Amino acid sequence: MTAAGESVVPAEPGAPEDDAAADLVRRLAALPTPNIGDAMERLNVVDGDIHPVWRGARMAGRAFTVYVAGGDNRGIHEAIPRLAPGDVLVVNGQGIANRALIGELIAGRAAARGCAGFVIDGAVRDVRDLEAMGFPVFARGLSPAGPYRNGPARLGVPVAVGSVVVRPGDIVVGDDDGVVVVPFEEAAAVARAAEDKRDAEAKQRADIGS
């Protein structure tokens, strides 16, 4: 057991992402989320209430997971210095939508570390600034109210976000349609199936237009 407010942080991650993993992220980043979701038999599709906070936001990357108390962003502050380029910060904020867990200042710090975007099961604020930065954020809600910073928090553990379990290192993809989570060990097969789905739909569109 830990004392109140104490964060539990796992060991530092291992070797940097290899070329094969980076290639999987690139392939999935090029695909629409509906094709990816269909390739997973409509599983691992995040609750539609978690949506892009500005139109046109798009991201893909490996998950860095955080579990925080509702309305409290201590764990997010602790996570930012640990982010690697290309990470997507995925936060279980317990669905609390009356206190924003992040705004443009935290997003700016994350962007400076090469973070690919945020997925937050909770609220955010500073939407116009986030859009002006071009920083992708997907969240359950918006609130001008700021967070507490008391803890507790857990970093680098499996989290539930929008009814989907996200583990550290899973590939997270978001676009205007929402967010999908690809278990890393399934990513190659999912990418192939989603590419086949995309190509089949392109043929159908061509046939319709002929």
TrEMBL record:
GO biological process, one term: methylation
Top-level enzyme category: lyase
Cofactor: a divalent metal cation
Keyword Transferase: yes
InterPro entries found in the cross-reference section: RraA/RraA-like, RraA/RraA-like_sf
EC number: 4.1.1.112, 4.1.3.17
Reactions performed catalytically: oxaloacetate + H(+) = pyruvate + CO2; 4-hydroxy-4-methyl-2-oxoglutarate = 2 pyruvate
Region forming the signal peptide: none
Keyword terms, alphabetized: Methyltransferase, Transferase
Origin: domain of life: Bacteria
Molecular function, one GO term: methyltransferase activity
The protein's role, per its UniProt record: Catalyzes the aldol cleavage of 4-hydroxy-4-methyl-2-oxoglutarate (HMG) into 2 molecules of pyruvate. Also contains a secondary oxaloacetate (OAA) decarboxylase activity due to the common pyruvate enolate transition state formed following C-C bond cleavage in the retro-aldol and decarboxylation reactions.
Family listed: Belongs to the class II aldolase/RraA-like family.
Assembly information from the UniProt record: Homotrimer.
Name of the molecule in the record: Putative 4-hydroxy-4-methyl-2-oxoglutarate aldolase
Organism name: Arthrobacter halodurans
